[in-house]
Every structure is written in structure tokens, then in C-alpha cells.
Amino acid sequence: MSRIFRAENHSLTIKMRTTAGRVLFSLVVLAGIVPVLYRAYSIFQSDRALHGEQTVGSYSRAIDYDPGNGALWWFRGRLRHYNIDSTDIPGAIRDYEQALSLNPRIGQAWVDLADCYERSENLPKAEESLQNALRVWTYSPLIRWQAGNFYLLRGNLEKMYECFKMACDYDIGKLGIAMRIAWKADPNHAEIDQKLIPDRLPARLLYLDFLVARDELDLALEAWERSLHDPIPEDYEYNVSAAFAFIDRLLAKSRVEDALRVWKEALQKADGSSADSRFVWEGAGIRPAEPSVNLVWNGSFEDQILSGGFDWRYSATADVEFATDLSDKIDGLRSLKLTFGGTNISFSHLSQIVPVLVPGNYLLEFYAKTENLTTDQRLYILIQGVPEVQAATLTTEPFPESSTWRKYSFPFAVKAGAKAIRIVLRRDPSEKFDNRLKGTLWLDEVSIRSQNEQNGMHERRSHGS
């Protein structure tokens, strides 16, 4: 009997212990769940408070439910900060400081706080906030840009350049306005390249165009030299055309030697195998490679026409079709074929600027073929000086209506002081009733060669006899 009683008592003890364990476990679980549920409830109520119009009041109610959310304090601060009707800078400062005490990684909040301090004329605190923003988001172009503007307004150009340069390094879209700001703020324009422009080829070329547009050609030459040392990024396509605007501006200022050097260097950078063999560079000087060298670039149209620099330039138009002809040519593998569609066109769409570094007598030669050219105004070749038009002049007779391949030769003179000419394929509008130009013209083996050496030989022979 006693054994039965002891067994029952033991069983009861076990049941009591099991029940107590379950209750304890339930209490532990409940203790863990309640904060989670409360947190979820707070977030729900906070989000609910922000439904509809977002105001200082709605964010205040959200903060009551979720006071540990730094973002809510920041957003309320921004409403107080940037509200046009009722700006509250002291309130914004308090909100920003609370937001950052909860989450110091909100980089933009540091920037907003800096702006509030600046408006409150507390410049040391404003700069301290900016430095905190930069520590949080070291490589943020936006924050670097805002810091740069802060230092610009304070007259601290060294810090401005430091911030702007990094901002532009990570966001090249900001470089245009940064260059304009620096140009106005810093009278020492010669150092802007080194202080502001990232050592990247696309950025350097943007600055080159900036200088060319302002006619700062000496500074542009320095920027160009630096660009030659900037490697070409893998995702960037470098073309000779990057130098075309610069070359044209140099030519307009009669700086032909500088333009030729830029042309040569652009060819080499775009394609290491390309070279302009017409001239020899000796230090700062330049001379023709040989007296009888053809001064026309790509005279047989064997290479792709670059349409700029010292290559042929042509303008696409619906009235004329430009094409290379592989089946009908004189020299090499192809000729240039122009087909006219039947309009009274004023045509000067094909030209080339040719360097002639030495004044004197020259000879233009080329091959041409025509087929069914119409109207009384047909195509002809025009030569003019660059930039002084009258420094060299030649107007050939119009091409015949139809002809087989034929060689043309025209002597002309270049006056002292001119170092370049423009050769142009021209057609003037017709005043006749039947004025629509149709037909086809082929050109090949175009050359311009100096006759000065030959003239000198003839003179020496004459004196000798």
C-alpha cells in the first residue's frame, strides 16, 4: 500500500514539475514575443500616421510611436528646413541632431545639418558637419559637390578644388559647371587643369573643348599635352575627331604648325600605326619630308574619310551621294564617286585643308571622270588661302558633261605668310530654267606638290649656261 502511495506521489511530482516547466517556457517565449509584437505595432502605427499628406504633424505622430527611428527625425527636420512658408531652422537642427545620434550613418543628414548651421552663421559647426558627412560617404559625388560649394562661398579655393575634383572624378556630368565656377572664382586659370580636372582622358578632353571655346589656345595646348599621357579607358572609344575643334581654331589663328602637331599626335593616339609622313618634326620646327611630297592627305581616297582635321571634309546631304568605288579607279583600290540627285544645289560639300608651309609655286593634279553632268553650272575645283582667302587663289574650268578618266594639272601660287590652303569641289547655283544638277563625278589621285625646287633647278641651269 505504501509503495502504491509513493508511486502516485512521485507521479504527481513529475506532473507538477512538467507543468511548471511549460509555464516557465511559455513565460520566456511570451517575454520574447511581446517586444517584437510591440515593435511591429509601433511601426504599423508609425506608418499609418504618415498615410496621406506628410507634414511636420504627421511625422511627429509617427515619432511618438517609433521614437528610435532616426530616419523619421531626419525627414521631419527636412520639412522644417526646406518649408518655404514656415522655415524652422532651430527645430530642424534639433531634429537632425537627434536623427544622427540614433544613426550617424545618414550622410545626407550631416549635409542638411551643415546647411542649417551655415544659415545660422555657425560656420565651425557647419564645417564639422560637412567633415562628418565626408567621413560617412567618402566617395559620394553629391556630398563632395555640396562641400565644394560650401568652401567656394567661404573663399577656400583649395578645399573647393579638392571636393569638386573628387566629385567630378566619380560623376563627370558635374565637370562642366565646375569648370565654369573655377574659371570665375580663380584668376589663376593656368592651374585649373592641375587642381580641378581628374586625370582621366574623357575629363581632359572636356576641359580641352572648354578652353577652345574661350580661345585660350595656349592653355588648350597644355591640356592637350596632358591628354596624350592619359590612358584610353577600356569602355571609351577615342577618335581623331576629339581634336577637330581644336585644330580648326588653331587654323583660324594661322597657327598651322601647332594644328599639324595636334593632328599628328591625335592620329598616333587613336591608332599607333597611323602617321602623317608628309612632314618631319625637328624639335619645335617642321618641314616637308621631301621637296616633291604630296601635300594632300588621303589623295587617292584609300582610307576612311575622317571628315575633319587635315583629311577630307564632306557634308552628307540628300542631294548628293558620296561613295567609294572599288570597280572604277585610277590609283590604288578605290576612287571617290559623287552622284547628284537633280537639284539646283550650291555645292561646296567636299574640301580639304592642305598645309603649305613655304610660299611659292605649287601644282594641283588629279584624275577625274564624269558621266551625264547637267546644267550650265557644272562642278569645278576652287583653291583659297586659310584663313586669308586671297593668299592663294585658283579656279579651274568646269568639268565636262561626260568624259573618261582624264588627268588635270593646274599651277598656282601661294603668297608669303600663308601656310595652308583649302581645296574645294564647288558648284554654283544655275539661273537657267533647266537648273537641276544630275550625273556622276569620280575623283582619284589628288595631289598638290611644291614647284619651288624645280624652279630653283631651272634657275641654276639658266645661270650656268
Features:
Serine Threonine Protein Phosphatase 5, Tetratricopeptide repeat; 47% helix; alpha+beta; 12 strands; 5-stranded antiparallel sheet; 465 residues; disordered C terminus; Jelly Rolls
How would you describe what is shown here?
By secondary structure, the chain is α+β, with helices and mostly antiparallel strands. Among the domains are: 199-289, Alpha Horseshoe (Serine Threonine Protein Phosphatase 5, Tetratricopeptide repeat), CATH 1.25.40; 313-456, Galactose-binding domain-like (Jelly Rolls), CATH 2.60.120. The chain has helices at residues 2-49, 56-65, 70-82, 89-102, 107-119, 123-136, 141-154, 157-170, 175-185, 192-196, 201-213, 217-227, 244-252, 256-270, 452-464, and strands spanning 279-282, 285-288, 313-314, 320-325, 335-343, 347-355, 360-371, 380-385, 393-395, 403-414, 420-427, 437-450. The strands form 3 sheets. The chain has a 5-stranded antiparallel sheet with strand order 3-6-11-8-9, with no helix packed on it. Strands 4-5-12-7-10 form a 5-stranded antiparallel sheet. Helix 1 (2-49) runs antiparallel to helix 2 and helix 3 (70-82) runs antiparallel to helix 4. The radius of gyration is 39 Å and the shape is elongated. It starts with a helix and ends with a helix.
